[in-house]
Every structure is written in structure tokens, then in C-alpha cells.
Automatic annotation (TrEMBL), chain B:
Name of the protein in its database record: GerAB/ArcD/ProY family transporter
Transmembrane domains' residue ranges: 7-26, 38-63, 84-105, 117-137, 144-161, 181-201, 213-238, 266-285, 297-317, 329-351
InterPro entries: Spore_GerAB
Coiled coil regions, renumbered to chain: none
Pfam families with a match to the protein in the record: Spore_permease
PANTHER family: SPORE GERMINATION PROTEIN A2
Bilayer disposition of the protein: Multi-pass membrane protein
Organism the protein comes from: Paenibacillus terricola
Entry keywords, A to Z: Germination, Membrane, Transmembrane, Transmembrane helix, Transport
Length: 494, 359
């Protein structure tokens, strides 16, 4: 998608006017008048003049640090005579910028432009306002580090650099968005990451044609392998330790300026089931929790669907003792199980969505209204059976056990498909639904590597860090999906 | 990067094509045709299948990993090659569709007596189509996941340790066997499926591991068939076994847990994936052959046409007995392909290579 002066142009049709203008800007010599013309009506642009030394200063006040501005620009300029200005500007922090395009881009990136004798210089004094580093609300852990990424990419880079003190950590700077010109940093560890992946990801980001990208989760939808799939194909995280672990595993990490969500690629379906907590606890506890998550995955996918299937077609599957309870609870319900289940599932989704949008204090009220009032009342009114309430609630709780919110949302959506299939064809419907799901997953790739790694292609060695969390002495190799040239951990190339 | 099939995937693929709905009635067939302790015949059939795989391995070695279509086309006239291709396409397509229909009828008999069979068949065919068009590498990936979905069910046999009576395994072997020749062919048909590896030559990753993987896949099938048959022969008496239509389904019905019983419903549904793999692989094989017959045709369209044809043909046999009859004759034809095709290819290669590589 390309944008120019508020006019939308569909993908594939380049805006020639914009391109021509940019080419023109690149050829136009940098001048004060041209710069001011470009920023006409931008009231937030600050223009200082120093007539006694024939210097003009242009910058955005909210993008630069005031200390840096005074220390590196204002003070030196006020302390020199006109014949000394040229000598001052030869210092290496002042970059001579001959063309207008680079100059404008520099100002937009938080640099100050200094004009003197038909020449323009840029000095980097970028220091945007940002929130402080806080705990992630979406990915909390009980033990382990609590700092998380913020919206400022440079701060995020510093968080990673603090943890990876290696010159092998490389950073590629790219730009996305015709209008927003957001910066994307691609991070990888040289010697561990596969350069084929780095090139592929760089190419994909360079090929994005869009007016603006606002978040890392949005960016990955432009660059993943199957944008139509319901599953997230690149993992995202707000946690620094998670991002660092991905880097060390040989994956490539991407930081979008303006977003606290950092993405990592390639990713596999099973990677979304891991949480940093698994590694901070004893391996046996970590393994138990991980197994619990896979059980939760099965529960959230099939529990309500099985209820519908059994109470619609397979009553013979219920043991005699349980049969009485179920038939009694269903006796008052006037709807077929599928309607009853869909009704409750939609109610749960409504509660979840409402709870997510409201402030925490009101969110709690929603929980009480939903959980107690609606649940209890629906059963008493004969709208639904209490067994179904248990099934739906268990499925909902199980879905929240999946650590990745994006994956959890995808799984919840798929659950509706399985419930409908169960309502139509019972157990066979569920089997058909799961078979189709597997077929779909088999076709998915993340950066051209199988999404079902390490189950398919099979690699038992990787299972030690997927289905269980083996002791650290057993986790000696990086995941095969990384195709790392340095597959054995702790053997860094010098 | 071009994706290739790893040996593990090949083993799993072979197992998933071989194993299918037949597990539900194999013990009965063994009892009917092989008599007392019929399960002992399983390793014998497995040996025959292993010999057949050995013939395929010779083709692979002599052909140096070339596709069988290349081997045939470079030595035989199109007048001979095209009818062979047509025969392969017809047999494999029919085998795929009728095997799937057999599963669906079985499921319908037990669970959905009033649901139209062809409605379920349509859904299965749609899934099979969406898998076939993804190519062999993705088919193998799906097969691996399906494999893990079904293989654990073999552990369910431990439920029958308590009810297992050694006395049912009488000291007599193959007594009261009837119709041994016809029966043997029927039972051996349950091992068929490995012959499709003939078409995997261009897609394999490791030359050394490939044939070992095929042997291992067949070995896995043997172990599974043997375990199921052994448990059935020990759990039921011989006479009971000969009279039961689907002994394994009845066996599973014995499993009772505090919160669920009659789990055969779940297992029947779960075994959908093995039938799905059979139909997928047979129609994939037919598609590959059709692509060699009409090289210019679009693979996706060929698959669509074959799946549609399979769907229409599967409308014809209605009853389980009719389907079994079709499968019996198709089994004969597939058996002919399983032995005939490698032998023909060996002959071609020997003549073409002048016997240089045989030693």
C-alpha cells in the first residue's frame, strides 16, 4: 500500500508523484528555505536564528533532548564568533548533509539541522519522551526478571544489549511505512543465526508497501508466510528474557519502533506453549507445567465439542452413574446441545472481550456479573445445563493457560468450528475437524521452515525442550528449526 | 531450500498407508482363513511383504534413485507405457476411494445409521483433496502427526491383560483353516500400501536410510497387527472370533473408565486419519502417474478430477459386502502391481544396464 498526500493507492500501483518528489528532494541541495517550505504549517517545528554568526537551527523540540540540545548545539554556537563557526562544524558530531531528502529525514528522526553559508549539517540529539520500563501485563511470570519492552526501540535495544554483551549481536536497521517511516531493527547473533533467514526476513520487510505499521503484531502479518492462516506464524513477546533466549537459540528478533511487542522468527506451533517460567523453576516442575499446558490445549479444543457430541449422538459413552446426573441437568433445557453450547461459548467470549476493554476495577465487576449472575441464572432458568457450564468454563480457563495471547485467541476460534462439527457429526465430526486442522498446520511454514517442527519433521532431540523441559545439562543443542551453523550451545565462534 | 523426505517420515508414511480400517476385522479374517492361532501367520505375511520391499530396493539401487516413470519411458514405447499408466491410475484411484468408503460404512453401521454415507464421504474427500494438493512433503508431515494421534491407542491393549486367557491360544496351529489361498491374498492385502514407495524415489533425502525406513515401516505394521491379533485370539475363543464381524471394535467396547465407556466410538473416529492417509496416498500416486501421462496438465486439476471420479465411483457399492467384494478384486490388482511393477522395472533396468550393476 502506498500513500501520498492523503490519497490511497491500491497495492501494486506505485505512486509516481511521490516517487518523483522524493527523487527531486534527493537532487535538491539542502537549503533553509526548501526545508522550511517542506515543513510549512508544522507548528511544532522550532526555528532558531543566530544572526550574529549567520546560523539557522531547525529541529522538533519534542524529539530532541534539551540537555543534549544545549550541550551540543546552543552553547557551542553562542560561544563562537562567525569566523569560528566553520571550524566548529567540522567536528565529527556534525554531519554535512548535501541533499534535502536526507536533511528532512534527519530532522524527522530527531536530529537538529544547522544551516551556515549555504551548507547544512545534522547533529543527532534524539531523545523522545517515553514511559519507564515496567512489568509486562500480558506476559507475567512468578519468578524471573520483570522488566519488559517499551515503545521506544532504542530503549528496547539497550535492554537486549545489556543481556547479550557480545560483538556478535548484530543489528540491521530498516524502515517500514510510506507515511509513518517507522524504524525496524532486526537483531541476530552472528555465527549462531542462519544468514538465509536474515536475508529472507530483510527482503520481506523491504517489500512491505503500507502507509503505516503500528505494532509488532501488525508487522508480522505483512511478512509471515501465510497471512490467511488463523495461527500466528511468528512469535511475539514483550519480555526481554524471552527475546534474548530466542536470539541465543538462533532465531532472528525484530523490534519495531513504537511497539513493545518484539517478534521472533522462525517459530513453530509448539513454541507458543512455552513460558519463561518453565526455565526458572526446577526442571521437574517446569516439565509438569508444560505437560499441563498441552492437556489444556486438548481440553480447550475438544471439551465442549465432546459434550455436544456425547449429549447429541453418543449417550452410550456415559457411564450409568453419570448418566442420571447429565440427563437430569439437561432435562429442563429446551435447546439441542449445540445451541446451548454455542450460546454459552459466545457469552464467555463476550465476558472476556468486555473484561479486556474495561478498566481493571470494572473488569472485576464483569467477572462477577458473568460468572455468578449469568452462570447461575442461566442454569436456574433452564437455559443451559450446569454440566455444560462446567465444560465451557473449563475450556475457557484452559484456553488462558496457553501462554501466548495471540495463539490462545486462535485456538478459541477453532474451538467454535469443532463444536459445530461435533453438533453435525458427533465424534466423527470432531475427528474430521481435527484432521482438517492437522492438514492446515502441515501446510504452514514460518520463514520457509515447517511450522510443526519438531514433530514434523520429527526430531526427538528437540522434544526435550518442547513437550518437557529437560534439565539444562540435557539441552545441549539449539532447536533444529533455527538451522544454526553452530548447533551446539556454548560453542561460540571467535 | 528443497524439502526432502527423511527416513522417519517414510517409515511413518508406509505404516499409515498400510494400517487402516482393516485392523478392526483382521483377527476375524485370520481366524476364518488360517484357523486356530491364525495370528502366527502375520509374521509369514510380513516376510512376503519384506521380500516385495526387497524387490523395490533393487529397483531403487539399479535405477540410481530415478523416478520409475523415467525408467519406464526411457526404455519402453509409449504404446506400452501409456496403458500401464492408465491401469495404475485406475487401480490406485479406485483403491483409495473404496478403502475410504469401507471405513465410512463401518462408522455408519456403528454410529450413524441414518446419515447419508456419501455426505460423510464428501467431507473426507475434501480433506483428502486439500492434503494432496499440498504435495508429498506436507502429506508426510500430516502423516507424522496422524501417526502420533493413533499409535498410542495400541497401549489400550494393556486393558485386556486381565481378560486374556492363555487357554484360548490352543496348542493347535492353523487347524480348521479354510480357503487358505483366497484368504491369504485377502489378508496379505492388509499389508499393501508399501508399493507406493516406488513413487517416492525422487523425493527422498537419504539414499541409505530410505529402504531401511520402508522395512521399518512394514515392521511397525507387523508389530501392530500382531499385537492386536494376538490379544484378540487370547481374549476371545476361536469360535467367537470367527463369528464376530469386527472383533477389535467389540474388544474396545469392553474398556470402561469411571467417566467414559464404549470408547470404541472415539477410536473408530480416530482411525479416520488412517483411512484418510490411505485415500490421500493412493490418489497422490494416481496423480503422479497421471502427471507423467499428461505432462502439461496442472497437478491441482488432475487431483480435483481424480478425487471427483473417486467420489462418483464410490457411489456405486452401497453395502459393506459390496465394498468388500470390490476391495477383494482391487486387492488382487494392487497385489499384481506390488509384485509386477518392481519385477518389470528390474527387467527393464537389467536389459538397459546390461547387467552391469546387478552384482
Amino acid at each position: 500500500m502506498k500513500w501520498s498526500r492523503g490519497t490511497y493507492n491500491p497495492p501494486g500501483t506505485d505512486n509516481k508523484q511521490e516517487d518523483n518528489k522524493q527523487t527531486d528532494d534527493a537532487n535538491v541541495p539542502a537549503s533553509l528555505q526548501h526545508t522550511l517550505d517542506n515543513f510549512k504549517d508544522c507548528t511544532d517545528l522550532i526555528h532558531h536564528t543566530f544572526p550574529e554568526i549567520n546560523v539557522n537551527l531547525v529541529y522538533f523540540g519534542h524529539l530532541v533532548g534539551s540537555d543534549e540540545l544545549f550541550r551540543d548545539v546552543i552553547t557551542p554556537l553562542t560561544n563562537v564568533r562567525e569566523n569560528e563557526v566553520q571550524a566548529l562544524l567540522t567536528r565529527n558530531q556534525y554531519k554535512l548533509t548535501p541533499d534535502s531528502k536526507s536533511l528532512i529525514k534527519g530532522i524527522l528522526n530527531g536530529q537538529a539541522a544547522i544551516f551556515h553559508n549555504d551548507k547544512a549539517y545534522l547533529i543527532d540529539i534524539y531523545k523522545p519522551g517515553s514511559r519507564s520500563i515496567e512489568q509486562s501485563e500480558t506476559e507475567t511470570v512468578i519468578t524471573g526478571p520483570h522488566d519488559s519492552f517499551i515503545e521506544t526501540a532504542t530503549a528496547n535495544l539497550s535492554l537486549i544489549r545489556r543481556r547479550v554483551k557480545s560483538s556478535h549481536l548484530k543489528v540491521i536497521k530498516l524502515e517500514v511505512g510510506e507515511v509513518s517511516k517507522s524504524t525496524v531493527y532486526l537483531l541476530y547473533i552472528d555465527g549462531i543465526a542462519n544468514m538465509e533467514y536474515v536475508r529472507e526476513l530483510t527482503d520481506r520487510i523491504n517489500l512491505i508497501e503500507v502507509d503505516a505499521v503500528y505494532d509488532g503484531n501488525m508487522l508480522i502479518q505483512y511478512i509471515d508466510d501465510s497471512p490467511n492462516s488463523v495461527f500466528p506464524l511468528f512469535s511475539t513477546t514483550e519480555r526481554v528474557d524471552t527475546a534474548v533466549s530466542k536470539l541465543v537459540a538462533g532465531r532472528i528478533v525484530g523490534i519495531l519502533d513504537g511497539s513493545p511487542s518484539v517478534f521472533a522468527a522462525p517459530s513453530s506451533f509448539f513454541e507458543f506453549m512455552a513460558s519463561p517460567d518453565d526455565y526458572y523453576q526446577r526442571w521437574s516442575t517446569g516439565t509438569a507445567i508444560r505437560v499441563l499446558r498441552f492437556i489444556a490445549l486438548i481440553i480447550t479444543l475438544t471439551f465442549t465439542a465432546l459434550y455436544v457430541s456425547v449429549t447429541t449422538y453418543h449417550y452410550e459413552m456415559i457411564p450409568e452413574a453419570l448418566l442420571l446426573t447429565i440427563t437430569e441437568s439437561r432435562s429442563k433445557v429446551p435447546f439441542p446441545p449445540i445451541y446451548e453450547a454455542l450460546l454459552m461459548e459466545i457469552t464467555i467470549e463476550l465476558l472476556r472481550e468486555a473484561g479486556a476493554r474495561l478498566p481493571t476495577k470494572i473488569g472485576q465487576t464483569i467477572g462477577i456479573v458473568g460468572g455468578i449472575v449469568i452462570g447461575q441464572a442461566a442454569v436456574q432458568a433452564g437455559f443451559t445445563s450446569n454440566i455444560l457450564i462446567i465444560a465451557v468454563a473449563s475450556s475457557a480457563i484452559a484456553s488462558f493457560v496457553i501462554p501466548s495471547y495471540v495463539m490462545s485467541a486462535s485456538i478459541r476460534l477453532i474451538r467454535f468450528g469443532l463444536i459445530i462439527m461435533a453438533g453435525i457429526l458427533g465424534d466423527l465430526g470432531i475427528a474430521l475437524g481435527i484432521a482438517y486442522l492437522v492438514v492446515h498446520l502441515s501446510g504452514l511454514t514460518s520463514l520457509n521452515s515447517s511450522y510443526l517442527t519438531p514433530v514434523s519433521p520429527n526430531n526427538f532431540n528437540d522434544w526435550r525442550d518442547v513437550f518437557i523441559r529437560a534439565p539444562f545439562w540435557a539441552l545441549t543443542r539449539r532447536p533444529t528449526q533455527s538451522r544454526s551453523p553452530n548447533a551446539v550451545r556454548n560453542r561460540m565462534r571467535k | 531450500m528443497k524439502e526432502k523426505l527423511h527416513p522417519f517420515h517414510i517409515s511413518v508414511l508406509v505404516f499409515m498407508i498400510q494400517a487402516g480400517v482393516v485392523v478392526f476385522f483382521l483377527p476375524r479374517m485370520l481366524a476364518q482363513y488360517m484357523g486356530y492361532n491364525g495370528w502366527v501367520a502375520i509374521p509369514l505375511f510380513s516376510v512376503v511383504a519384506t521380500f516385495n520391499i526387497f524387490l523395490i530396493s533393487i529397483v531403487y539401487r539399479l535405477g540410481d534413485g530415478r523416478s520409475i516413470f523415467q525408467i519406464m519411458e526411457q526404455s519402453l514405447s509409449k504404446l506400452i507405457v501409456y496403458p500401464v499408466y492408465t491401469y495404475l491410475i485406475v487401480v490406485w484411484t479406485l483403491l483409495g476411494c473404496i478403502a475410504a468408503k469401507q471405513y465410512i460404512i463401518l462408522f455408519q453401521v456403528f454410529v450413524f445409521p441414518t446419515t447419508p454415507i456419501m455426505y460423510i464421504k464428501l467431507l473426507v474427500d475434501i480433506i483428502a483433496f486439500s492434503l494432496i494438493i499440498k504435495g508429498i512433503y506436507n502429506i508426510s508431515k500430516a502423516a507424522t502427526v496422524f501417526f502420533w494421534m493413533v499409535i498410542w491407542t495400541i497401549l489400550m491393549l494393556t486393558f485386556f491383560i486381565k481378560g486374556f486367557e492363555w487357554v484360548n491360544l490352543t496348542p493347535f496351529f492353523f487347524k480348521e483353516s479354510t480357503n487358505v489361498v483366497v484368504g491369504s491374498i485377502s489378508i496379505f492385502s492388509s499389508f499393501l500400501g508399501y508399493e507406493l514407495v516406488l513413487l517416492l524415489f525422487p523425493y527422498v533425502d537419504s539414499k541409505k536410510g530410505f529402504m531401511k525406513a520402508v522395512y521399518f515401516g512394514n515392521f511397525l505394521t507387523t508389530i501392530v497387527y500382531l499385537s492386536i491379533s494376538f490379544v484378540c485370539f487370547g481374549f476371545y475363543s476361536f469360535k467367537q472370533l470367527t463369528k464376530m464381524k469386527f472383533p477389535l471394535v467389540d474388544l474396545l467396547a469392553y474398556i470402561r473408565l469411571p467417566f467414559v465407556e464404549r470408547v470404541e466410538n472415539i477410536f473408530l473416529a480416530l482411525y479416520l486419519v488412517t483411512s484418510l492417509m490411505s485415500i490421500t496416498m493412493y490418489i497422490w500416486a494416481a496423480t503422479e502417474t497421471a502427471k507423467s501421462l499428461i505432462p502439461r496438465a496442472n497437478k491441482r486439476w488432475i487431483t480435483a478430477i481424480l478425487v471427483c471420479c473417486a467420489f462418483v465411483v464410490s457411489w456405486i457399492p452401497n453395502m459393506l459386502s459390496e465394498v468388500e467384494l470390490w476391495l477383494k478384486y482391487l486387492g488382487y490388482m494392487a497385489l499384481g502391481i506390488a509384485f509386477g511393477l518392481p519385477l518389470m522395472l528390474i527387467a527393464i533396468l537389467v536389459i538397459h544396464n546390461g547387467g552391469k550393476k546387478i552384482a
